[in-house]
Write a structure and sequence with these properties.
By secondary structure, the protein is of the alpha/beta class. Helix content is 27%, strand content 26%. It has helices at 31-42, 56-66, 99-104, 125-136, 218-234, 244-253, 277-289, and strands at residues 3-7, 46-51, 72-77, 114-118, 121-122, 145-151, 162-170, 173-185, 191-195, 198-202, 207-215, 259-262, 269-270. Residues 5-136 form the Nucleotidyl transferase domain.
């Protein structure tokens, strides 16, 4: 059965704290607990949490209360100095190298097909079901990949701008993905993104990536090679980051992977800003009231 890799190393700077640990369910559940609950029901049997050492004790203590003994659990540190031989951290850099490096940190622990997701997003139970079904049909030696996409208008926050990987598809396959920043609605309600302070209108029906991917284990060898190329090109830049959507987009363009877009009725939501939290709390309560979840995820 496939493994689930959860990227939980981010601090949530706009939110102002560790979103991964914020209680939003009716019994204090975190969004992370909903992810694991849905993943286990879908058939995932192994989870790897990518975290940072500076909050590892707090994170492990909370996770161990609810998940260990129910699913195989591993903890992986994303470390600034985890670099290929011959490379070193530029003087003054303190931030790790992005989500590509985070996933690469799982090498040696992932031998099976695996999904990758954020720790602080709610993806919906059906998203895990379609991902497990897709990964179970693939040969571990395949270079093909999967992505669960969501409509852009359903991923925005009324309290500020967001960044999204905006997707173009051809015959059900991802043909390109472009990171757009500062996406939001203007005073007239038109959705737009800014680039070099120039606004460009969007329909809101665009499919975007919320970082829910499905990969074969062969990806990890590819990431090792691509990390070297990234560091050679941008390794001395203080704020350079190596993102999964950019890596996948390059692999599509060079024919190294074909990414099938997975169709799902799942609802995405998340907490980008503190003001988003009441909406998430109310949505989760409604799901419990509708018996889509048991009265408590905690037994």
């Amino acid at each position: 059965m496939p493994a689930l890799v959860i990227m939980a190393a981010g601090m949530g700077s706009r939110y102002g704290g560790l979103k991964q640990m914020d209680p939003v369910g009716p019994n204090g559940e975190t969004l992370l607990e909903y992810s694991i609950y849905d993943a286990i029901k879908a058939g995932f049997r192994k989870v790897l949490f990518i975290i940072r050492e500076d909050f590892a004790d707090e994170f492990m203590e909370q996770v161990s209360q609810f998940f260990e003994g129910i699913i195989e659990v591993h903890y992986v540190f994303q470390e600034l100095g985890d670099l290929p031989r011959g490379f070193s951290v530029p003087e003054g850099r303190t931030k790790p190298w992005g989500t590509g490096q985070a996933v690469l940190a799982c090498r040696g622990l992932v031998k099976e097909p695996f999904a990758v997701q954020n720790a602080d997003d709610f993806y919906g139970a059906d998203a895990y079901r379609v991902m497990v079904d897709a990964l179970a049909r693939m040969s571990p030696a395949s270079s093909d990949s999967y992505m669960v996409g969501y409509r852009l208008r359903n991923t925005l926050s009324p309290h500020g701008s967001v960044s999204r990987g905006v997707c173009t598809t051809t015959d059900g396959f991802l043909s390109s993905i472009v990171e757009r920043t500062r996406i939001g609605a203007n005073a007239e309600g038109t959705i737009e993104y800014f680039e070099s302070d120039i606004p460009t209108a969007m329909t809101g029906d665009e499919i975007c990536s919320m970082n829910f991917w499905g990969f074969m284990p062969t990806l990890l060898q590819t990431l090792e090679e691509k990390f070297i190329a990234f560091l050679n090109a941008q390794g001395q830049e203080m704020k350079s980051e190596w993102y999964i959507p950019d890596i996948v987009d390059e692999m599509i363009r060079t024919g190294q992977t074909h990414v099938k877009m997975l169709s799902t009725n799942a609802q995405w939501f998340g907490v980008t800003y503190p003001e988003d939290r009441p909406v998430v709390v109310a949505a989760l309560q409604a799901m419990h009231d509708a018996k889509r979840y048991p009265p408590s995820l905690r037994g």
